[in-house]
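Example 3.2
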Amino acid sequence: MRRKGAGIGAVSKDRLQKAKFEKKGNEIADAQVSQLTTHLEQFKTHLERFASKHKNEIRKDPEFRNRFQQMCARSGVDPLASSKGFWAEMLGVGDFYYELGVQIVEICMATRDRNGGLISLEELWQRLKKSRRMKHNQEISMEDVSRAIKKLHVLGGGFAIIPVGGRKLVQSVPGELNMDHTRVLQQAEMTGHTCLSEIAAALKWENVRVLSILDHLVREGMAWVDDQAGDERHYWFPSLVPDIAMQSLR
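Structure, written as tokens:
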């Protein structure tokens, strides 16, 4: 009976010790959270001071603005999250990207009859630069354009950046292009045009598969049909033909 009593006492002692360890562990965790919160608040304060000091460079210099955005991203701060609050009031970056997004939508809609809602990022950037020089005398970078498009993508409406070989295209119509569509576009990347036999030979696809993709791109207005190119029908892609894209900028 005595041994049993000693066993119960040992268990109680273990429970008490365990409770003490848990309490101490919670105290340490609370202290660490408090310390981390303090560090984050201090960092945010320093970031805001930096932004206040360099706000003109952030607004006017595309490269400086891009580096500032990267620094914010590493720290988990998103100045573009809202058009209100400190960042919008201090820097106007929320309004900057909102306005840039509106201009992107306008350009994509204005060129949609020609390219079917598929425009090269380069052409879009050139059009935006021309427009903003006339209205705001303000330079923008391609990174600014990409960042604004990503914000539009979150809102829906079909906006997305599609890598095609060595260049990037901006899609501004609902409905994602799948891998087959992208690979066909890659075949036309260098010259801006291609044909069924070239695609079938290069990708080792059946003709019916190639024709299905080309017909879809033609229906969507992303490709033009050329029946005067020789023995075989050719397909031209306005978003991939620099002369067609840039001629309307002059």
